[in-house]
Design goal:
The structure holds 2 protein chains of 2 kinds.
Chain A lengths: L5 H4 L6 H14 L25 E7 L7 H17 L3 E7 L2 H11 L9 E4 L3 H9 L7 H7 L1 H5 L1 H5 L2 E2 L10 E2 L2 E2 L1 E10 H6 L8 H13 L3 E4 L9 H13 L2 H9 L10 H15 L12 H9 L3 E7 L3 H8 L3 E4 L4 E5 L2 E3 L7 H11 L2 H9 L3 E2 L5 H6 L2 H16 L2 E2 L9 H13 L5 H18 L2
Parallel strand pairs in A: 1-2, 1-3, 8-9, 11-14
Antiparallel strand pairs in A: 3-12, 4-5, 6-12, 7-9, 7-10, 7-11, 7-13
Chain B lengths: L1 H47 L1 E2 L7 E2 L3 H8 L1 H34 L5 H13 L2 H11 L7 H8 L17 H27 L2 H9 L4 H12 L1 H16 L3 H6 L11 H11 L3 H30 L1
Antiparallel strand pairs in B: 1-2
Helix pairs in contact in B: 1-13, 2-13, 3-7, 3-10, 4-7, 7-10, 10-13, 12-13
Classes of the chains: A alpha/beta, B mainly alpha.
Chain lengths: 459, 305
């Protein structure tokens, strides 16, 4: 299987803020949508689904094997489980592409004859925000009272799925989606390479950085790293991970969700992170010619045992595990960058929202969550000890790291959620930083200036 | 009289019919051109004067989007990059193919068709494929053929140069790919032209004692003036519209070293929801393309008289 990239999963992140404006505009223009229907759900009170229910449960998703191996694999298991639990119910599964999602959902959800009972929706304002602004999604708090989902999932994954009625920001407000999986960016390591220079398996930032220095002093490339465009997004993940050591999760959350009195990236911690990245570059921790290497080349370098470390998302764990076997390891720092997979939402005009809620509840069941891990995704709920023990070591570490970070409040969103152009600007900025064209503080000043300018235009 | 009157009236009717049928013949082309080119162009002009995200309500902002082209360092920089790329896209391939067709004229080889196909081949390959292949060829050593070859001949370190990732080399490297891409087109455009030049002209010049250079500048270049004009115009327009090659090879990086207006238009319109800015840049590029085309044409016509 080709290595997964977070951009398969995180496509819509780039256009988050486009959605802010679009959602607001649609909210202003729309005359249908919320409050108009007596059909479907508005007559249905949230309740547990009766066991003797009959009919069809329509479920829509955007899971594709390449990007979501676990989520795709559990779909048939999910159907079977529901049909066993509710013998009169048939599950009709519809899988679509991401672009279908953006094109079809607003129209399909507007009418009970076309709306499904439950559907995946993408976090961020372009998709979920637009639907919320149009009144096309049900807030899930009433169902949480019945099923207690929020406590299982944890606050930060829900924050991505939380929106105020205005649709102008996200991160607070009602919850409109429940994710089933998570992702984290961590540090893959090769035990054999570390041992060859007398290094130790990283368990802390200090041991990780001392291993890097040790590898460099032995003339080895410490970190498989690629910054060649257009495929390599490792530079931003590198900066995020270093920033997690210097900046608190709370401060980074405030920046991404634009909350607090003065959310800023131009702070001493972020400048220190940029300075560290520049220093690592200067000290030769990265491969020669990294500026022209592709992400796959960096992965291959690590898989072939040429470097001690490879900093990337858990989506590379199956590739690394199969290449390095017992020598593979994955360290998740205590404060870690990551985010949930797509949220599961119930349309306001779902024919039977209670059936939709029943499906979400089964998705969060231990059996399905364990299966997600078994098939290669991090389950959003902490899996059982037995399931963890059976998972590959790298995925096991990733799942444990996700669970720890979510429950300790130390999960940091991908910073490029902050504004639509943030990823472009930071990619260019990091390249300039690594080439010594700008200083760490100039990089942060420039990113902050663009951020301030963007939010000042949002009113 | 009656007959005459009838005849005049008939002629008028016929004229009106001719007039009508003329417009009817024109109508399909005018409708298609109007609907697919003139109307969208008009809309683009309208959008360029607005701040609009593509969905909501637009706000009139006057010429602010146009002034931004010159005040925003990234947009301004993209125009400078474009100027440099024009040399690679247009002037270098035209000059190089001019020299080569001139040399080929002197020694008429068999199998000319084969060379024509080989030189033209890059034009037939989809640009995305060209960009991907060149990204591999120019990759740092270990994977990159160019660096490997340079190292074999002692012209580079074993680690190689990240041609497309280096601040100093990226723009010339993209330009090099563009020149390679456009050379075949210029070659095919100029080759028939040089074959049209009567050999007697060269014979006469030789009798008068003209050398190779004199022949080139006094016969080949003036006689191929229109063909050269066509080659420069076509390749320059391609340069101004450049998007795919840059998008695939460097995505405008490192930093903004290879950023071009085409890529900025795409980002503004489709990633950032800044349709007004994208339209303004698009309209500005159209004006530049028109000006350049007319400029080249005027130059060719002036020298022709």
């Amino acid at each position: 299987m080709a290595a997964r990239t977070r951009y398969g999963r995180r496509t819509t992140r780039l256009t988050v803020a486009l959605g802010v404006v679009a959602a607001a505009a649609i909210a202003g223009c729309s005359s249908s949508g919320s409050g108009s229907g007596a059909s479907g759900s508005s007559a249905t009170q949230p309740a547990m689904l009766a066991k003797n229910i009959t009919g069809t449960l329509n479920e829509w998703n955007w899971d594709i094997p390449g990007d979501d191996p676990g989520e795709t694999a559990v779909l048939p298991i999910l159907e079977k489980t529901i049909e066993q639990e509710y013998p009169g119910l048939k599950v009709a599964n519809t899988s679509m592409s991401l672009s279908d999602q953006n094109d079809k959902l607003p129209l399909a959800f507007a009418d009970s004859s076309s709306a499904p009972d439950v559907s995946e929706t993408n976090e961020g304002l372009q998709n979920q925000g637009r639907l919320v602004a149009d009144g096309e999604l049900l807030p899930l708090e009433p169902y949480n009272k019945l099923y207690n989902w929020f406590a299982k999932v944890g606050p930060l994954p829900l924050q991505y799925n939380s929106l105020p009625a205005s649709g102008k920001t996200f991160g607070t407000g009602n919850v409109y989606g429940i994710p089933e999986t998570g992702t984290v960016v961590g540090i893959f390591y090769n035990k054999a390479v570390l041992a060859s220079v007398g290094g130790v398996v990283p368990t802390s930032w200090a041991s990780f950085t001392s291993d890097m220095a040790l590898l460099a002093s032995h003339g080895k490339t410490a970190m498989a790293y690629a910054a060649g465009q257009p495929t390599a997004y490792q530079p931003v993940h590198m900066l995020y991970t270093i920033a997690n050591h210097y900046v608190s999760a709370a401060a980074q959350n405030a920046f991404v969700f634009h909350t607090g009195s003065d959310p800023s990236i131009d702070t001493a911690g972020f400048v220190q992170a940029a300075a560290t990245m520049a220093a690592w570059t200067k000290d030769g921790y990265f491969p020669k010619g990294y500026q022209g290497l592709s992400d796959v080349t960096a992965l291959n370098m690590f898989d072939q045992g040429q470097t001690g470390f490879f900093l990337e998302g858990d989506w590379y764990s199956s590739s690394v595990q199969s290449a390095l076997g017992a020598n593979a390891g994955f360290w998740v720092p205590p404060v870690v960058t990551g985010g949930p997979g797509e949220g599961w939402s119930i349309p306001s005009k779902a024919p039977d929202p209670n059936a939709g809620a029943a499906l979400i509840n089964v998705l969060l069941s231990p059996a399905i969550q364990n299966d997600l891990l078994h098939y290669g995704d991090i389950p959003v709920v902490t899996p059982s000890a037995a399931a963890l023990a059976a998972a590959s070591p790298t995925l096991r570490s990733a799942a444990a790291g996700w669970s720890d970070a979510v429950h300790s409040g130390n999960l940091v969103p991908y910073l490029d959620y902050a504004t639509p152009n943030f990823l472009n600007q930071e990619m260019a900025g990091i390249q300039e930083l690594q080439a010594g064209q700008i200083t760490p503080s100039a990089l942060m000043q420039s990113l902050q200036s663009d951020y301030t300018s963007y939010w000042s235009q949002q009113g | 009289m009656t007959l005459l009157k009838t005849s005049t009236a008939g002629s008028r009717r016929r004229k009106r019919r001719d007039w009508l049928s003329g417009y009817l013949y024109l109508a399909p082309a005018v409708i298609i051109l109007g609907a697919l080119i003139i109307y969208p162009l008009g809309k683009a002009v309208q959008y360029s004067l607005q701040q609009w995200d593509g969905v909501g309500i637009a706000k009139y902002v006057g010429f602010a989007n146009y002034t931004q082209i010159f005040t925003d360092p990234v947009e301004r920089g993209s125009l400078v990059n474009l100027g440099i790329l024009l040399v690679f896209y247009s002037l270098i391939p035209t000059a190089l193919s001019l020299v080569i067709v001139n040399l080929m004229r002197r020694s008429r080889q068999r199998g000319m068709g084969f060379f024509r196909v080989i030189y033209f081949l890059p034009q037939v390959i989809v640009t995305v494929v060209v960009a991907i292949v060149w990204t591999w060829l120019l990759a740092p050593s270990g994977t990159g053929t160019v660096n490997g070859l340079l190292h074999v001949f002692g012209l580079g370190p074993s680690t190689g140069t990240p041609w497309l990732g280096s601040f100093s080399a990226a723009l010339p490297a993209v330009g090099f790919i563009a020149a390679w891409l456009d050379f075949g087109l210029c070659f095919v455009l100029l080759l028939p032209g040089i074959q049209r030049i009567p050999p007697e002209l060269y014979d006469a010049a030789r009798v008068d004692g003209a050398g190779l250079l004199r022949e080139f500048f006094s016969i080949t270049v003036p006689m191929l003036r229109r063909d050269i004009g066509a080659a420069i115009t076509i390749t320059a327009v391609a340069a101004l519209q450049s998007f795919t090659l840059v998008y695939q090879a460097t995505d405008g990086g490192p930093g903004y070293q290879t950023m071009v207006p085409g890529l900025l238009i795409y980002r503004d319109a489709f990633q950032l929801g800044e349709v007004g800015t994208a339209s303004a840049l698009g309209i500005a590029m159209s004006i530049i393309i028109f000006a350049l085309t007319f400029g080249i044409r005027a130059l060719i016509e002036r020298n022709a008289t």
